[in-house]
């Protein structure tokens, strides 16, 4: 309605002007047209938009002709902006963190300038639009980006954060782009065909010792019967270059996840105890200080946690021994019970082009980094 008032005022004034030309004595149509024009002008003045002075000061929304926000709309916008906490699960450089930090800063400035705890409708709209526009990653795609700036006089803050968000995401996508290019170049990264002669023969054929590959192979406690991977685990644990973390996690993992119990039961049924003996030898080597290098993270398993200590391990081993007739094992000394980084620098030795994962087996390793913030 407000948008039609200027036109109505002009039409009414024009009619009064032509009526006065025909009847200068202010009678007939002019008598009615002139007061109507005056009333329209008064209405136009009284219905003019109220300027959001505080919002103008910071260069945000300038049009207040939209209806006032309902109570529910205000609560929704407040919840999406000033009451939304900083995303502590994101790094400080993440767009979500940067945008919310800017919103909180502006809200505090506006409240201080107006000496009022409540933000105006225009200020709430501007903060909401800033949230919706500046970081478009998870926002509705139904509105074009420029529509978010429809009511903004000076969009510098909006555009600055939008550019920051786009640049940040482009930078984060670079490793994935590089990975896709590498994948297209190498084709299928699956390397399990190299295991036709078994895991041990494959590991022996490598020109050097890759302790990260060894650790990944040894600390997968499933499908140990696949080819000769159990033999490969104990082969790895016999090598002088084997990392302390590998022995640490194998001892704790085999006891916790039931691998030792399974080996003991099979030994009792078949009379072949070589794997139980090999496990006892790992503990003996640990106690004798055989595993001198500690470059890899220890106790990096999903479980067991620190509550699975030496007493609990001793209890489990005693139960296995009682049930299967397995000789009691030596008590391990110096195990790391909580997740801990390695204390030694990584050796400047051989790094193979291969990696291992439980769900993929042996595969060609991407030479770049795929680490990125989400």
Query: Main β-sheet: number of strands, strand sense, barrel status?
Result: 2 strands, antiparallel
Oligomer: single chain
Which ranges are low-confidence, i.e. pLDDT below 50, for 5 or more consecutive residues?
A: 49-59
* Spatial strand order of the main sheet: 1-2
Summarize this structure as a short list of keywords or feature phrases:
single chain; 14 helices; 374 residues; two-stranded antiparallel sheet; 3 domains; 2 strands; 52% helix; mainly alpha; elongated
Quick summary:
This protein is mostly helical and 374 residues long. It contains 14 helices and two strands; from the N terminus they run ααααααααααααααββ.
What would you note in describing this structure?
The protein is mostly helical and 374 residues long. The chain folds into three domains: 2-46, no CATH class; 53-183, no CATH class; 209-348, no CATH class. The protein is 52% helix and 2% strand. It has a two-stranded antiparallel sheet with strand order 1-2. Strand 1 and strand 2 form a beta hairpin. The chain is elongated, with a radius of gyration of 37 Å. Residues 49-59 have low confidence and may be disordered.
Produce the secondary structure layout.
Elements: H1 5-22, H2 29-46, H3 53-57, H4 71-80, H5 95-114, H6 121-134, H7 156-186, H8 199-205, H9 211-218, H10 229-236, H11 244-256, H12 259-270, H13 274-287, H14 310-324, E1 354-357, E2 361-364
Helix pairs in contact: 1-2, 4-6, 5-6, 9-10, 11-13, 12-13, 12-14
